# Entry
Amino acid sequence: MKEILGTLRIPVTVLGALGLLYTLYIHLNAIDYAEVAEGDSIPGFLRLGLLVVWPAAIAMVWVRQGELKVDHPDLGRLKLLFKSLFGEAPNLVIMAAIAAYIYGTYYGWTFHFEGITGIIDEKLVLHNHGHIIRELKTDEFLQYKAEEIRLKTSNLLIFYAIGTCILFPRLSKIEA
# Structure
């Protein structure tokens, strides 16, 4: 398992970093309603990328935790968890992942959900499970669509940032 992770770690980390950057690009574009279309503007490959990044990240935590238990049996539970999650990542990467987690969680909790946008009977509407809440003008539709995109990408930001941070290799090993 460790050999397979060693081989796949760098490509999956690069994939996670690219997914994080592209998700951040979409999120920032949705802030000023740029490139917001009537369709879903979050590509499906961003969601599928998480199915590659997260199994590798979970396997990495599992392997790292086993090694830490053998090397340092006196570690406390919280310290063991932190070291197995972020053990090899540089401090800047850890801070970026924690910042993405805090931002995404805050944005998710403060988001006021009224419904989702859609086109029903050739009308721009806000609906919830097919029940039309109200019809929207084009500018209102774009505003609600942008909020929808920001909510979805804030969740993707959390998962890509934490997964990439877990997989991030040590930049230089200094042997003492």
